[in-house]
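Teaching note: in complex prediction, the entire set of molecules is handled at once rather than each chain in isolation. The prompt given to students was simply: 'Predict the structure of this complex.' The entities are:
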Amino acid sequence: MGDVVSALREALGDRAVLEGETGGGAPDWLGGARRTPALAVLRPASTEEVSTALRICHAHRQPVVPQGGLTGLVHGADTNERTLALSLERMHAIEAVDPVNRTMTVQAGVPLQRVQEAADEHDLLFPLDLGARGSATIGGNIATNAGGNRVIRYGMMRENVLGLEAVLADGTVVSSLHPMLKNNTGYDLKQLFVGSEGTLGVVTRAVLRLRQKPRSENVAFVAVPDFDRVTALLARVDAELGGMLSAFEVLWDDFYRLITTPPAENRPPFATRSAFYVLIEALGGDEAADAERFQTVLARALEDGLVVDAAVATSAADRARLWAMRDDVGQVRRHAPVQTFDVSLPIPAVPAYVEEVNARLGERFGEVVNFVFGHLGDGNIHLIVGPGDREPETRQAVEAIVYGALAPRGGSVSAEHGIGLEKKPWLAVSRSEAEQAVMRAVKQALDPEGILNPGKIL
Amino acid sequence: MGDVVSALREALGDRAVLEGETGGGAPDWLGGARRTPALAVLRPASTEEVSTALRICHAHRQPVVPQGGLTGLVHGADTNERTLALSLERMHAIEAVDPVNRTMTVQAGVPLQRVQEAADEHDLLFPLDLGARGSATIGGNIATNAGGNRVIRYGMMRENVLGLEAVLADGTVVSSLHPMLKNNTGYDLKQLFVGSEGTLGVVTRAVLRLRQKPRSENVAFVAVPDFDRVTALLARVDAELGGMLSAFEVLWDDFYRLITTPPAENRPPFATRSAFYVLIEALGGDEAADAERFQTVLARALEDGLVVDAAVATSAADRARLWAMRDDVGQVRRHAPVQTFDVSLPIPAVPAYVEEVNARLGERFGEVVNFVFGHLGDGNIHLIVGPGDREPETRQAVEAIVYGALAPRGGSVSAEHGIGLEKKPWLAVSRSEAEQAVMRAVKQALDPEGILNPGKIL
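The expected output is the structure of the full assembly:
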């Protein structure tokens, strides 16, 4: 098997094959980056080189792990001593921006933030956004079908990719770089590559859908007394903001207390305490008129008791402060070690789910913490649970409780983070044997030798 | 092979197997319905019966053509003497509406219009809409990834299906009835069935995404002097309406003249003549404020010369009149026989494309008509071309011109209608050999005996 590295070096040159180095592993944002060993790291500079590399690996039945910015949270890009890392870092060009068609053609290794900035220069918006924007690459965003805060308005990565180019396990280049919103010419192949975590092909280029850049941005943070009113508020603001609603982020009280209590630096935006808090964001087309509408909608929600207190941002700094508070998830380090979860379930089932998880964790472990917050409009909540002991038995016991309570509610063990290695043991909670069999059939059809990111997902 | 019908009758009962009748063929909306013969028509009443039927067909290697409301335009549901029609017409229940999760669970045979009405009863909206809403079924909408007028705001059918249940060729039921917006647990299998025209599985049930029902509806019809201003107007209204824009329908002057000249009953909304006309629709959240915004945005567009005349609807009757005018495509019958096309291409390439098609048609046929209109925000235009002689040679010559001019521009021979039989000879214009090979591999993986809608698409 040493042969394969020599063959790759000969075909691609020394610059494209780094031996003796480690491939990056998924960083653990709660405990520092973790790196995993690799047979070698491939750094092709073009689609043709990716194709050549995979053709050689295929001939040698050499497992390959495609890697983007290594910001994933489920060990979906982990390598080991017998696998090659395939980094797209040298393919980072923004090839074209078409402001009339409102599309951008990019190579897979370009970081998300550079795409956002390039769109902005053309008075356009690439709406996908997430904390790792500086390192996460478009290829990784595609491979993991990234989500984030604005899915309720703009959809996940899947909805923001119009076309893509991928290289199959045997080196075949499948170019589906179609730049149209509508294209019903047979199977929509890009859907196979979006969200399949590099197990069906290596995404090399993509055509992204851009939107008009918002002319107004309004943000409020509100207190809501109970869950029924949280969902009523969601329906209300979604209807009355008439297409402007871009985020509806819900915080359970425990989490709110954590992020507004020193040493956290966020100050509570109001004195009112409540069972739930919601950060509401609206992106619109007219600064003055939208601000007025936003305040009117909130005032009516206050009048009707859906909301018991509200802080409305009146400046960009205000908005940044409210978002920074919501995003100050790092405060959970005070309770380290913890375990983080990313689940989704039907919205009406959420409160009973959280209660059941808390009750079961309490029964099993006595005193526990469970910080809950999330993109409720998408049915997506994050749970950060202590104890998060490093002992596998404890971790598995916590997972069994958090994931186990999803099954009867039709929930998903991964809303936006993917399966990778971390959630693989729990896939059956959310996907039936028949579904898994179809996945295996598709995998077999596209990668019969099983060289692409083996052992991930399935 | 006669055996298979007896076996089906024994397993499903007489009511579910109609022999000696014809399966419905795709209706030709310009020339009356067309029906095609079938070995028999299966009418299963449940997912289990669909499964039983397919299991028997699979064992007999009996080809099956899944059928919805038979409103498709590309002969995607045509049968012949050797194929069975599989109608979902008895599976027409709306099983559940969840107004908090904003989802609806339905059987595949329910007509689109009933879904729209059921959503409306809960103050919600199912946004997909098309002319055939009364007959077209949800299963057919899924199988063809239906589009329509509001894709620019709400996406195609693909974006409005959260989960689905399908029966594979061998009778395996794959239930992926997930009701969440976010669910990254392995391959998103529903994507395989959406838009694959019944060749990979038979969709039996679906979970649909609902939206809040708009509180305001504003419509205008405007005259625009040239194409550059059409695209500038699109960017302008999309930005300034701040999320409300729900339709941007462009009409070329020839088409506008046709639908506003007797015997057409539509009266021109203004006296101004122009190269292009646009119907703009905005759905919002506040009746008074949105009407004011809509008028302000249009007034600015007039001031800046993007628009040279505008008629703004001031009542529901007005709005209906403007839409009826846009939808009065039947006027092309005055030039029958004609050929209709549904293509998409990058928006900046549209005007040169239409000019080239017109020039080539003129060279080849002398006097021609080419009525052009479409969902320009999606890059999707419809062309209705005369001559549309019934002679295959003439039809093919016209197709060669219309589709041929797409290839160098990266266009699609089917924006929303699908491939079926009609566009199969032209698939290679839009999809490479590598793409077709992947499609065949997926087909082989899911339907190795090739019994599901054989001969369609590929």
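Point out the following to students. Chain B has 14 helices and 20 strands. Residues 287-303 of chain B form the longest helix (17 residues).
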